[in-house]
Specification:
- This protein has 303 residues and is mainly alpha-helical.
- It has two domains: 1-150, Orthogonal Bundle (Butyryl-Coa Dehydrogenase, subunit A, domain 1); 157-302, Butyryl-CoA Dehydrogenase, subunit A, domain 3.
- It is built from ten helices and no strands.
- Helix 2 runs parallel beside helix 6 (157-172), helix 3 runs antiparallel to helix 4 and helix 3 crosses helix 5 (139-150).
- The longest helix is centred in the middle third of the chain and has 28 residues, at 184-211.
- It is globular, with a radius of gyration of 21 Å.
- The model is unreliable at 256-260 (pLDDT under 50).
- The protein binds flavin-adenine dinucleotide (FAD).
- Flavin-adenine dinucleotide binds next to helix 10.
């Protein structure tokens, strides 16, 4: 989903040197003061250049929560190292029995994880009071605020477009007798459908960004963006794998290395990696069914 720290941290440090690591934050804490459109253009250029994704936990999720709920001392302690890429954050919400139904969490304290990415158990962890963000009992408000960022404020379409471009390149390598069970004409038609969906999504995202002005939070529309981006990510991944046909079965995981692999091999690895990655999109940050429930309730409230 996100690049390993060995790739994303050096990239964040490079961005920090330019003053571009935390564009969403207020200028006094290192923000760029860019308009939403400027942020979009920056993301677009990074995606086109194949730059790694910035790991969002500190910069995009935890940082905004500290900015809103943290004390001045906490801001001074935590925000500069996040902006410099000196530390690495995770968020530990989900529990057996409390994934989608986050409100039934039993955990009473939170700490940074180690490695073993999916299961971390916390027993008798003691957290100094000065590290608690927000007032006592306000943890749920902080968590919900963070999720607004996880579910929407990420600007999805530039990365979706670069993934889609790779699928287009993959299609170009096929002759009319493809390895796929689908004919090239069928694949091209599907490509057209996904292309239209992507254009529509990009317009929605741009329209949303333009409408929020300088606010960092998207509010309820974040659920719609998360839902649609997840579906698009999977449509693009599915199309890439179908186009690859049986080549997809021969793929072996591992970092794609430009200097050793020929271009098609690299493309195959990346498209398949995108596909495997796409499976998680309809689960993390709240499964699609949960987003649909929230959107339905929001629609009923506004009627
Ligand atoms: C790649 C990845 C990264 C993740 N990263 C993190 C992380 O950094 N921190 C963290 O805390 N967690 C993380 N998670 C966990 C993630 O948030 C949960 O997996 C997710 O919320 C779903 O919870 P669950 O797995 O318990 O499934 P369940 O909640 O048991 O859901 C199972 C199925 O039932 C459906 N369902 C459940 N309730 C309803 C309902 N009310 N209405 C309709 N359908 C429903 C769901 O949509 C799903 O299809 C990550 C997960 C993945 C896959």
């Amino acid at each position: 989903m996100y690049p390993e720290p060995e790739y994303s941290r050096p990239w964040l440090k490079l961005l920090a040197q330019k003053g571009w690591s935390v564009p969403l934050w207020p200028k006094e804490w290192g923000g760029t003061g860019w308009s939403p459109l400027e942020r979009f253009i920056f993301e677009h250029e990074c995606a086109q250049a194949g730059a790694p994704l910035v790991h969002p936990m500190g910069v995009r999720l935890v940082g905004p929560v500290i900015l809103r709920f943290g004390t001045q001392e906490q801001k001074q302690e935590y925000l500069p190292p996040i902006a410099r890429g000196d530390n690495y954050w995770c968020q530990g919400f989900s529990e057996p029995g409390a994934g989608s139904d986050l409100a039934s969490l039993r955990l009473q304290a939170v700490r940074e994880g180690d490695h073993d990415v999916n299961e971390v158990f916390f027993d008798d962890v003691r957290v100094p009071i000065r590290q608690r963000i927000g007032a006592e009992g306000q943890g749920w408000d902080c968590a919900k605020y963070l999720l607004e960022f996880e579910r929407g404020a990420g600007i999805y379409s530039p990365r979706l477009r670069s993934g889609f471009k790779r699928v287009g390149l993959m299609l170009q390598t096929l002759d009319s007798k493809t390895d796929s069970i689908h004919s090239k004409a069928q694949l091209v038609r599907k490509f057209g459908e996904v292309s239209t969906d992507l254009d529509t999504f990009e317009m929605l995202e741009l329209q949303t960004l333009m409408s929020i002005g300088s606010s960092a939070s998207l509010g309820d529309v974040s659920y719609i963006l998360k839902l649609r981006a997840s579906r698009l990510k999977q449509s693009i991944g599915d199309l890439g794998v179908v186009a690859m046909g049986e080549q997809a079965l021969r793929w072996t995981p591992g970092p794609a290395r430009l200097q050793t692999a020929d271009e098609l091999q690299l493309l195959t690895q990346t498209v398949l990696g995108d596909y495997l990655n796409s499976r998680a999109y309809t689960i993390f940050g709240g499964a699609s069914e949960i987003q649909l429930g929230i959107i339905a309730r929001a629609a009923c409230t506004t009627d």
